Amino acid sequence: xxxxxxTPSNKVTEKGKYVELRCDPISGHTALxxxxxxxxxxxxxxxxxxxxxxxxxxxxxxxxxxxVRPEGSVSTLKIQRTERGDSAVYLCASSLIGRGVPxxxxxxxxTRLTVL
Amino acid sequence: xxxxxxxxxxxxxxxxxxxxLRCNYSSSVPPYLFWYVQYPNxxxxxxxxxxxxxxxxxxxxxxxxxxKKSETSFHLTKPSAHMSDAAxxxxxxxxxxxxxxxxxxxxxxxxxTVLP
Lengths: 116, 116
Prior knowledge:
heterodimer; A: mainly beta; seven-stranded mixed sheet; four-stranded antiparallel sheet; B: mainly beta; six-stranded mixed sheet; 0% helix; globular
């Protein structure tokens, strides 16, 4: 089956604009994660969904960042009033269950966001 | 809280030589540990994971890692490097406690170069 897909692959925007990044997880995966990877760094956790609800959003840097997963499948990461410091690769991952022993997280190719 | 330190942001080896990528972790509870590989313009791919079943973990592509609690280490090795192993490698930790157990905390990565 298909892996995790993310759209767009690249997004260039201007400072102050609003952006939406989309993630399509592997079919049947109930857990979905968002990470952010800045240049030269490892991915940093943003938020984790179990089904439709955000189980842990402790990694969101501020209230300009918001994510939804209304039907328990596709998720959208929303960034308001973008800043140059938001430029990074945003990674999405999904896993089958997300309980107990960590299931393998499968990562998408990422969306490269550039804020001018 | 957990953290990961990867010693050496860049490692170069000759083709056929031993690969050793270092990872030390910090965790207040028994950890789960992971190694991921990232090829250019591709998503992170799981190489192997430690979930307390066995201290020596074998992964894909001939890689293995050994969990050493006394040294808080989880170094990645491969006996003989191949040109196709050139990529960036990330070590990650996840706590075994409940709550935010499923988020991964990544190291800053090690870029492996394989010389002909």
